[in-house]
Amino acid sequence: MEFFFGDFSVLQICILIVSAILIGINKTGIPGLGLIPVIMLVFTFETGISTGLQLMMLCMADLAAVAYYHKTANWKIIAKLLPAALGGIIIGSCVIHKLDSNAMMLLMGIVILILSGISVVREIWWNDAEKIPSHWSFAVCTGLLAGFSTQIANAAGPIMALYLLAMRLPKLE
Question: How far apart are CA 37 and CA 23, in angstroms?
Answer without folding.
Answer: 7
